[in-house]
Design brief:
Helices cover 35% and strands 18% of the residues. The strands form 3 sheets. The protein has a 6-stranded mixed beta sheet with strand order 2-3-1-4-5-6, with helices on both faces. Strands 8-7-9-10 form a 4-stranded parallel beta sheet, sandwiched between helices. Helix 11 runs parallel beside helix 13. The protein has 14 helices and 14 strands.
């Protein structure tokens, strides 16, 4: 609880061809030899994620990727995996070796940055290896026809030349695009009373709360909201004892029970629905849930979990939601389960995607996944919205949000 969750930090991904100096640049930016550096092409084979301080901005997540010019069947898979990082990158750095500018590669990468709405910065590395005259020619962009080349930053990772200037540009881009949206604080006036319903079952972590609960509590404190945390078993007595309650936020698994207890005069929603609003397109996810009744017998449903964890007989994504869908709709469906960053690109085989609350991924990741589903024509929704829909309380659950 003492650190900002990684999913809430800006993600900066470093791209470029092999031996352009991506890992060396990362070490120079961090002031530490954390990334493995070698003159052998292809030293970095998979995206490597590191959370570090970008002084004086604060903590960020750097992602070092494999070379975009990797070759062979395995190399193509590495390139594909590297470019997939753009689905969660808030900012991209493209590193070029000044001795091998390879502008066509940069233009191809720039097209990917544009496609994924990722702001980028080109860094020309190894300027210590050329004379001042040659450096001047490259800066003048003679006969190269590269657009916006004047926005490039020229550095030497080996000599740390230009690193301070690069750091300043990164911070400026991050500050210009910085967003710190509220989870609850913009929904209620100051000094409102919020009750959080946190069921304790076998899946609940011992001696701690899960991330969405912690973040909502902090958001309430940041915005001057009175926050009370109870189990579902004590909810009824809490509502009787509190003089005024403006909003009840429940774990989605307890939606049906909690809705029956909370008077209609009190607003009600869930942690998962709040995070659907925070990190995704709420209306798109609501539309996705409305497609449930139209699914045909045997339809393929993808259950997508952002995090990796052990599963139990009470697991919401693998047990409770599939069982409830089957029971409510009276049809048999085929459920497929994916976890972590393993979001499939072959979405055409699915009729519906049901995503978790996305507390472990950043907004860029969720936006990218929703956009991919939209492009493929596949409806997408999330756990909390599905549970509200199937329990007949959708309108009530989203009333305070729309």
């Amino acid at each position: 609880m003492n650190q900002t969750p990684t999913a809430n930090l800006p993600h900066i991904a470093i791209f470029g061809n092999r031996n352009a100096g991506k890992s060396s640049l990362l070490n120079a930016l961090l002031g530490q030899d954390l990334a493995l550096v070698s003159p052998i092409k292809g030293t970095t084979t998979d995206p490597v994620q590191k959370t570090m301080e970008l002084i004086p901005f604060g903590p960020v997540v750097f992602i070092d990727t494999a070379g975009l010019d990797d070759e062979g069947e395995l190399g193509e898979l590495r390139v594909k995996r590297s470019l997939k990082v753009l689905q969660k990158a808030d900012l991209a750095i493209y590193v070029s070796d000044i001795n091998d500018m390879d502008d066509p590669s940069f233009e191809a990468a720039k097209a990917s940055f544009t496609k994924t709405n990722t702001p980028y910065l080109r860094v020309i590395n190894k300027i210590d290896s050329v004379c001042q005259e040659r450096l001047g020619e490259i800066k003048d962009n003679k006969d190269r026809g590269v657009e916006n080349e004047d926005s490039s930053v020229y550095v030497s990772s080996l000599k740390s030349t230009g690193i301070v200037e690069l750091r300043e540009q990164l911070i400026k881009i991050l500050q210009d695009s910085a967003q710190d949206p509220a989870i609850v604080g913009d929904l209620l006036p100051y000094n409102s009373t919020v009750v959080l319903v946190v069921p304790i079952d076998s899946a609940a972590p011992k001696a701690r709360l899960i991330l969405p609960q912690v973040q909502v509590i902090r958001d309430c404190l940041d915005h001057g909201l009175q926050c009370h945390v109870v189990r579902d078993a004590e909810l009824e007595s809490a509502l009787q004892e509190l003089p005024k309650v403006d909003l009840v936020i429940t774990d989605s698994q307890a939606f049906k029970q909690v809705s029956a207890i909370v008077p209609s005069t009190i607003k009600l929603t869930s942690f998962s629905i709040l995070f659907a609003r925070l990190k995704g397109d709420l209306q798109e996810l609501i539309r996705g849930a409305s497609r449930l009744p139209g699914l045909q017998e045997g339809a393929q449903i993808l259950m997508m979990e952002s995090c990796s964890h052990n599963h139990s007989h009470e697991d919401i994504g693998r047990i409770k939601i599939p069982n409830l869908i089957t029971k409510r709709l009276g049809k048999t469906f085929s459920f497929d389960y994916k976890m972590g960053q393993d979001f499939p690109e072959n979405l055409e085989e699915y009729d519906l995607v049901i995503h978790c609350g996305s507390c472990m991924v950043n907004k860029k990741t969720m936006d990218s996944r929703i956009q991919l589903c939209r492009t493929k024509g596949i409806p997408i929704t999330n756990y909390g919205i599905v549970l509200a829909y199937l329990n007949g309380i959708m309108e009530r659950a989203i009333e305070i949000l729309v």
